[in-house]
């Protein structure tokens, strides 16, 4: 039945509404119970779910996403009881995090229980768990009666899906069903914190910030690429899941970081050199950078440019919602290079935003 064998899976697509919620959820929970795969919206990004306790079902996720084996999946849960079913020796601080941030964009890595198959945890003795703040997955977990293994519903290496159309383009013919629930309200994946480490390590930044976490459980370490090249923390023993590339469009992405005006000046120089080479350039800009470079762009041959706006520098949450759609859109245009603006505020979602921009880019320039 796998696409690899040449036999395409028939993918059902449902637009979830108030009227059909119960009947659609009934139908797709039956797919999960029978070991199938269903993509659905969450508040962070779309997830691709299967019964997380059924190794054959979980294998289908790896095959559909072309995800490298050994990259651990996390589990979406519906209740505290679910957490205690799949994990053990849960530290008090992990319960405090659940009380404060769940349901919500925080994945908590805990010691795994034997009930969770090795394929789900990528062979690790730990497992990431999250209670999503979205009624579609919550109802699906409840109706299917099992925690869902649920990575982001994109082909491995592509930007995560913030819209059902992203899932449709990546996974049609590879999974059993797709639930369209509109745009993901956050647009970036959850924060991941490893609570088996002392002090706990943040493996991926997201909508729950380091400061938010520290205000509840005290000192945490950051273990992701949040620092400029050559200045990365060495957490070699804890970098599970970090060793695989993510968020990489096919088109080369160049990121220009720094203070607003400096970024704009650097960008103009960069665009001049691309123009002299006749390169077609995609631009992902803050509103301010777009204004500051408008005079320059107006003088150019506009055929060479595709420009998308990500919102104000001081509102990274707006850019977060638009980022993956922007990358996918520009990636389809057959451009030579995408230049991304890294002048957004680092507050709130800003840290996660810059992290995803860095992951997506192969060249980083500091203005
Ligand atoms: O917001 C989200 O977390 C979305 C939605 C669908 O829930 N899911 C998501 O899943 O982004 P995924 O698999 O694309 O990312 C989960 C991250 C990966 O970086 C994975 O390596 C890490 O969490 N992870 C999962 N289990 C882990 C473990 N036991 N130890 C370390 N890292 C783990
Ligand atoms: Mg992912």
TrEMBL record:
Catalysed reactions listed for this entry: L-threonine + hydrogencarbonate + ATP = L-threonylcarbamoyladenylate + diphosphate + H2O
InterPro entries, per database record: DHBP_synth_RibB-like_a/b_dom (IPR017945), Sua5-like_dom (IPR006070), Sua5/YwlC_C (IPR038385), Sua5_C (IPR005145), T(6)A37_SUA5 (IPR010923), TC-AMP_synthase_SUA5 (IPR050156)
Binding site for ATP: 67, 71, 152, 160, 204, 247
This protein's GO CC annotations: cytoplasm
Residue ranges constituting the YrdC-like domain according to the UniProt record: 22-208
Record's keyword terms, sorted: ATP-binding, Cytoplasm, Nucleotide-binding, Nucleotidyltransferase, Transferase, tRNA processing
Top class in the EC scheme: transferase
Record's keyword annotation contains Membrane: no
EC number annotated for this UniProt entry: 2.7.7.87
Pfam family, one: Sua5_yciO_yrdC
Gene Ontology terms: biological process: regulation of translational fidelity; tRNA processing
One function term, GO molecular function aspect: L-threonylcarbamoyladenylate synthase
Binding site for L-threonine: 44, 130, 150, 190
Keyword NAD tagged: no
Principal localisation: cytoplasm
Family that this chain belongs to: Belongs to the SUA5 family.
Entry function: Required for the formation of a threonylcarbamoyl group on adenosine at position 37 (t(6)A37) in tRNAs that read codons beginning with adenine.
Protein name: Threonylcarbamoyl-AMP synthase
Species, as recorded: Methanosarcina barkeri 3
């Amino acid at each position: 039945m796998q696409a690899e064998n040449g036999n395409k899976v028939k993918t059902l697509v449902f637009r979830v509404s108030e009227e059909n919620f119960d009947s659609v959820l009934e139908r797709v929970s039956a797919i999960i119970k029978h070991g199938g795969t269903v993509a659905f919206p969450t508040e962070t990004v779309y997830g691709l779910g299967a019964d997380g306790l059924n190794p054959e079902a979980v294998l289908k996720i790896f095959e559909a996403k072309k995800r490298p084996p050994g990259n651990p999946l996390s589990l979406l849960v519906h209740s505290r009881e679910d957490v205690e079913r799949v994990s053990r020796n849960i530290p008090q601080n992990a319960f405090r995090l659940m009380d404060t941030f769940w349901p919500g964009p925080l994945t908590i890595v805990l010691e795994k229980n034997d009930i969770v198959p090795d394929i789900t945890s990528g062979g690790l003795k730990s497992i990431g768990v999250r209670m999503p703040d979205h009624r579609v997955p919550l109802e699906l977990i409840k109706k299917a009666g099992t925690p869902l293994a649920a990575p982001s519903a994109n082909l491995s290496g592509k930007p995560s899906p913030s819209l059902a159309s992203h899932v449709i383009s990546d996974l049609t013919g590879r999974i059993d069903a797709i639930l369209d629930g509109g745009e993901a309200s956050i647009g970036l994946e959850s924060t991941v914190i490893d609570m088996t480490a002392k002090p706990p390590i943040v493996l991926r930044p997201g909508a729950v910030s380091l400061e938010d976490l520290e205000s509840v459980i005290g000192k945490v370490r950051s273990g992701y690429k949040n620092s400029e090249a050559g200045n990365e923390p060495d957490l070699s023993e804890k970098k599970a899941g970090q060793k695989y590339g993510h968020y990489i469009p096919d088109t080369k992405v160049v990121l220009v970081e720094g203070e607003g005006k400096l970024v704009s000046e650097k960008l103009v120089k960069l665009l001049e050199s691309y123009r002299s080479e006749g390169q077609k350039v995609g631009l992902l800009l803050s509103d301010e950078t777009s204004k500051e470079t408008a005079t320059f762009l107006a003088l150019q041959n506009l055929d060479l440019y595709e420009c998308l706006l990500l919102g104000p520098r001081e509102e990274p949450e707006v850019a977060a919602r638009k980022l993956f759609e922007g990358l996918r859109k520009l990636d389809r245009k057959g451009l030579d290079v995408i230049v991304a603006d890294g002048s957004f505020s680092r507050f709130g979602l800003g840290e996660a935003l810059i992290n995803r921009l860095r992951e997506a880019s192969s060249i980083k320039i500091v203005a």
